[in-house]
Amino acid sequence: MTGNYLTEVRHGDASQQIIAMEQEYDTDLIVVGKHGTNFSEDLLLGSVTKHVLAESQCDVLVVADDRPAVDLVFA
């Protein structure tokens, strides 16, 4: 992969931490995910994605995951 990118682990509210990082660094692009398993869910974005889209001063790329959800089993 070429170019500069940053991976960082933070704790707290996800959308607030993403916007804080944008303000701390010279951010050109934020990539966030979206998932949905049917048409009605595909029309909706999660609360973190909505907040980042509304508050970000840079470009935001929303990536859709069309794979079916995986059931988690706890024993």
Question: What do you see in this structure?
Answer:
- This protein has 75 residues and is α+β, with helices and mostly antiparallel strands.
- The chain has a domain at 14-65.
- It is 32% helix and 19% strand.
- It has three helices and two strands.
- It has helices at residues 14-24, 39-42, 47-55; strands spanning 29-35, 59-65.
- A two-stranded parallel ribbon has the order 1-2.
- Helix 1 packs parallel to helix 3 (47-55).
Summarize this entry quickly:
The chain has helices spanning 14-24, 39-42, 47-55, and strands at 29-35, 59-65. It is an alpha+beta fold and 75 residues long.
In DSSP terms (H or I, runs of 4 or more residues), the helix count works out at 3
Helix proportion: 25-40%
Low-pLDDT windows of residues: none
Question: What is the typical, i.e. mean, pLDDT?
Answer: 79
Structural classification: alpha+beta
Strand content: 15-25%
Walk across the major sheet and give the strand order: 1-2
Radius of gyration, whole Å: 15 Å
Number of strands: 2
Cα(first) to Cα(last) distance is 39 Å
Give a quick account of the main beta sheet: strands, pairing sense, barrel closure: 2 strands, parallel
Cα shape: globular
Instruction: Give the ordered list of helices and strands.
Output: HEHHE
